[in-house]
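G., before I forget:
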Amino acid sequence: MSILEVSQLKKIYSTRFGGNQVEALTDVNFNVEEGEYIAIMGESGSGKTTLLNILAALDKPTSGSVILDGRNISQISESKMANFRRNNIGFVFQDFNLLDTFTLEDNIFLPLVLSGKKYKDMKDKLKPIAKELKIEDILKKYPYEVSGGQKQRAAVARAIITDPKLVFADEPTGALDSKSADELLRLFAKINRLGQTILMVTHSVKSASFADRVLFIRDGKIFHQIYKGNDTDFKFYEKISDTITLLASGGES
Amino acid sequence: MRLGFYLKFAIDGIKKNKKLYIPYILTCSVMFAMCYIICFLNDSESVSKVSVFINTGVFPWIFAFFSGLVLFYTNSFLIKRRKKEFGLYNVLGMNKRNISKILFFETVITLVIVIILGLVGGFLLYKLAETLLLSMLGGDIDYNIVISSDASVWTIIAFCVVFALIFLNSLRQIGFSNAISLIKSESFGEKPPKSNIFVGIIGLLLLIGAYIATLNVSGSAATWWFFIGVILVIISTYIIMISSSVFICRVLKNNKRYYYKSSHFISISSMMYRMKRNGAGLASICVLLTMVQFIMSTYIYVQWLADDMLKCQYPQQNTHVRVTEENIDRLFSDDNLKIKKELSNFASENNVNLKNYLEYRDVHFREMGIYVDDNKVDISQRLTSYSEENKGKFFQIDFIPIDEYNKNMGTNETLNRGEAVVNVFGGEYNKDSITFTWGDKQEKTFKFVDKQLESMKIDRSWYNPKLVIFISDINEIKEIENIILSGGGNSQDILAYGIQLRFDIDCSNDRVKGFFKSFREKTYEIADSLQLKGILSNNYYQSRYIDFKDLREFLFVSIFFIILFTIVVILIMYYKQVSEGYEDANRFDIMKKVGISKKEIKKSVNSQLLVTFAAPLILTGLHTIFSTIMLCKMMFTTAYHDYISFAFMIFISFIVLSLLYCIMYKVTSKVYYRIVGGVDKD
């Protein structure tokens, strides 16, 4: 069953005085199955971030539809949107987006508190996740007191603590050193194996090679996709790399 | 590089930061205008004719000094916000000298705008201020528009000096930091605020101490206590706002069930930061509001005082003429009848009617308050000095023969020798007699009979309660004179013999002022021609507009300080909102992504802003309660205190101040919402 269906998505930005129109997304179609781990790759300016913003309902498409778990998100009213996003979508950002006025623990609790959960329930919920993400010892610290990798793991905890249907990750390894990045990617893979659907936007081949399927986006369109199938991470890495080379060398087919 | 280049940069810099610069320039201009006005009033001839202290030359300096302080504060805020920009210039290859040139041009441009706006404002508003002052002081108002070049030059020089200092200060701030720290200055990772319970408690204790001090002040030490109290209150306000508030947030935060509620969660944690960063600003707001309130309270007090004095002096008729004679016999001489006649003739020559006469002869002790121990007056000890123990034992004493009473009140009361009736004004005297002695020698006792006399509406002392003793016959006073004589005193130095005339000058308020002037001269003329020992003539309007001149000038000057402090409060609030807006814009962006609706954000923002802005007001309210108590204790040494209505007026003024503050808050928070963006919509 498809958890996310994207069809004929189009997004046109117009400059402030309506002079120039920039087509960020031309015609995007794809489905995400439950439990899948998908990476979307593309160069800067290819429309990756626009796509992610629309999928996460942070931005509205010009036309086309995004159906998440059977609901068309563009039909959800503004007032219910925040609630919907909180309960159905988890978000991991490149620059962590943790609030500096909260401890890591409180940052993680943020969506639950907003949903009116009890402190004890939240604590119980956090326990296994914190253990899994190895952040038990630093929960009481403030974001500025911990390393980038630790911050990002806290952000992951915040994203998954609501049991979202889908986790979006926007260049999650972008601000991390290679060791922390590897660790984080393994973590994503592990979470995915536990049943979490993940959609990641990245331009790192390494990151993409952990996914089940990689979509390539160029000039606002899904240009190509490859499946991991039974390939090893390394094998898949080479495949992705080859595809990118091919795309870059101008292969139009 | 050419100068034009820097000029362009400077103009751009001001334009780009207009959110910061417009309020700054406006403030500078208002200060400039006020400075000019004060300076001009100082030189003005029509003001110096009536003024007591406004033209002493101190006020322009005081005001320029305060303006300088305010502008210094404002500018350092501006520079702080612009460090990033200068850092960028630095990274792009401008050295500090180039940047200082830009800053220099910015300062000059600002100064020029300020001088132009300030001068125009000053020229326009001067007349208003002068008219207000002159009407308060009863001077002659003319409506010619005037411009003072002296005052303009003085103010321009003063502001050039202030701006030069401000410029040097900006240089200092920028000069000591390198490019990277300039760029990063805004986004420095901030430690979570540590609350020090100890400091927090000290703050609260200091405040309580200050309040207790205000409750215990009395007598001559009051002024000292007042200053100690003021300093304690200011210090504790700062400590409480900075430290105690963080401490309170922390306590709330540790209460998990309270903290992890969607309505408290965001508010409390960001409040901790807000209070730490803005505690000082909030404390300043509180101190300034308290000052404004205190000035207003004093204003009310002085106004009230003047009215009360007038009420004591003129209980009914608006004019009082008192002829002082040498001795009892002279009181009843024929000459005295002439006075009244001549005065009424003079009035009717001027088409003015004198009516509602009250005319009586009295003898009273010259001192405003003499010491009455139990029911004894030892005349030799009558000037005993005031102390805490003999509080309430000082009275003004006035003897009026009962015949004089009968004449005025149309009654037919009689008293036997040695009997008397006493009317007490503004105090209590529950004895059934009063005895006059000189040391142990001789006595004269008046026994008070049980008789109620409707009181004559005569003036009363403002400081001490007054005993009006109606006696059977004027000759009984001679016995008191004898007591004085036998003790070696001179009765003329101790007693005053007077003919009191009270009447209304019956004409319009506009005319009464002019008429009374010539009327008073006429009384002096009559007194000279009759060779009277002394004559005094007073009129309500005369007293109201001339006699309390220094108080009225104080009121006038206080208006300027109220405006000054209010502007500072608005500025602090405005800049607080701007800086918090920039900080929070980013935070709200994150929250939106995590899944918080605009409505929820707005709710949390509202409650935070409300608490941070209510805090200074609440503390100001507390301060005001205690400063009012202090004012009462310090200043109400008079006999006629009406605490309730005084407190009520202060309460009203506080309500007005609160409303003003709320408006300022509403207006400035608009800026915040605009910066945070979109939060106030939907």
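The beta strands of chain A are 2-14, 21-33, 37-41, 63-68, 71-72, 89-92, 166-170, 198-202, 213-218, 221-227. Residues 178-193 of chain A form the longest helix (16 residues).

More on Monday.
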